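Changelog excerpt

This revision adds worked examples to the README so contributors can see how folded entries look when concatenated. The first example is reproduced verbatim below.
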Amino acid sequence: MQEIKHFFFDMDDTLYDQMEPFRLSLIREGMWTDKEWAEFDRLFKRVRHHSDELWDDYVAGKMTLEETRRLRLILAFAEYDIQVSDELADRLQLAYEEEQRVIQPSAGIVPLLEAIRARGHDIGIITNGPVAHQTRKIEALGVRQFANEGWVFVSDALGMAKPDPRLFAEVNRRTGTKPENCIYIGDNWRNDVVGSCESGWSCVWLNNRGRQPESHHRPTHEVRTIEDMARKLLGMGALAVLAVLAAGFLAFL
């Protein structure tokens, strides 16, 4: 295998826990206030499922972004025999966006990014979605400082979206990198695993929600936690990785 020099990360549900602002948005609107975390998690998986299913229609211009966001909630709640009106779906989406303004990186992400930079490697971010919306989340997370200048890519700005291999090829072109030297880290099988594998990149699948593979593609590594991710990316033992994540990159140096 070629040397990995360039580390590209997905953002949503990879750099932060996307379910938490979703859970808080429902509570904020007085919904599911009596539910356990696991029930929110199951509902969130269904929302993500419908979002993925509707994404192609959005990219193709068959649905507006507002219609896509509205319908994914309506379809997910319908599976629980809960009728959600267009108005309620719009309120939930607005609450969700408000909660995303104060998101924080998942525990261990910042030390991991610091450790990758300390080794002299490049870091980039590739995320699907509207430019303004995704940019706000990137700024809230405070992760732009770890990325190379000009290495943050938002699908709507490129005019193409994951899993389209053309997007990964365009990233290679703009960054002057080769596919065999790139690794992509993401949680979504369809967008992240399929897209990067078909582009000749290595791939780490952060399977943090216990999903099943959806195709014949084989990620380079499958991990369940940030600690597992760091172990694979840094090639370090468990104790050394824990030291890095607990104390930051100075422990690594």
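The second example, added in the same revision:
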Amino acid sequence: WITPCREIPEELLSKYTLEGKIPILDWFDDGRKALLNQNWDDAYIDKYKNLFLNENIKKQISLWKHEPYPYDKAAYNVLMSVEKYDIHNKNVAIIGTTIPWIEAILLNNNNNVTTVEYNVPKCVVDNLTCIHYDDFVKSNTTYDCIFSYSSTEHCGLGRYGDPLDPD
């Protein structure tokens, strides 16, 4: 694992700040902790699949408290996209995750799911594969669609063990 930096390396500072136009705030979060010793077995994934059943999401939209984004209707919005665009029996990738809530929604809708992560969870679940970002980039696998929720906007910042890349 790449350890997140507490300070921006001097040689990358001008790119991260757009030549000094963006201020630097003193704030640090090691996001890799969310995936330490993560084991995605049937019992773990089934817990999320049961929680994120289509009917549960639709019934509890105003009361939802069970996901990493409890107040912004994320699960509902993902489910509405699955229904609107007929994402059933598809080959789907998810870019970045710490909790398999999108995976659960997609699995509940009969999809084959690949989760792409820098810190890959151990996964032994039917129709769910977890791969490293580098393997994803090198792969010739095609996907019917790709989901990402609160992941790509911090890629390159190093928070989750990803390499520093201001571009």
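Reviewer comment on example two: The chain has a mean pLDDT of 86. The chain is about 30% helix and 15% strand.
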